[in-house]
Amino acid sequence: MIQKKIDYLSNDYWEKLANQSLIRFFILRALKDRDLHGYLLIKEIRDLSRDFCNPSESTLYPALNQFLKEGLIVQANHSSKDKKIYSITQKGKDAFKLAAKTWNRILPTLNRKTIL
Fold first, then answer.
1. The whole model's pTM is what?
2. What is the b/e burial string over 16-32, where b = at least 16 CB atoms within 10 angstroms of the residue's CB?
3. How many domains does the chain divide into?
């Protein structure tokens, strides 16, 4: 298999890299407020991130499955439809608090003009 060359001078590369981490953060952030199914979760992530994160199903569901496996969220079937509803657990709330502290610690550094 031929490995695709990484273009470190591409804005697309850096945005995708940031998105991989931020989508997980925003999943927990969105579920902290209310239980959501996949489509509404994608919409909420877009809203919370001011359209920076635009998860597709192929990025959202692997993250949700990882969180389910690790006990950060739980899933239930909606009674009237086949939609799966996701809820955050206490472990997920604790993980979100740690993630928020980490992002709040690094963001001022990223915002300083001295590094740009």
1. 0.84
2. eeebeebbbbbbbbbbe
3. 1
In a domain, 95, yes or no: yes
Rounded CA gap, 79 and 115, in Å? 51
- For residue 92, the domain's CATH number is 1.10.10.10
In terms of residue numbers, what domain contains 109? 12-115
The one-letter code for the residue type at 77 is: N
Nearby residues of 18 by Cβ (< 8 Å), 6 or more positions away? 52
Q: In this structure, is residue 109 part of a structural domain?
A: yes
- Read off the amino acid at residue 58: S
Task: State CA 69 to chain mean position distance.
Answer: 16
Tell me the per-residue pLDDT of 7-55, one tens digit each, with 9 for 90 and over: 999 999 988 888 888 999 999 999 999 999 999 999 999 999 999 998 9
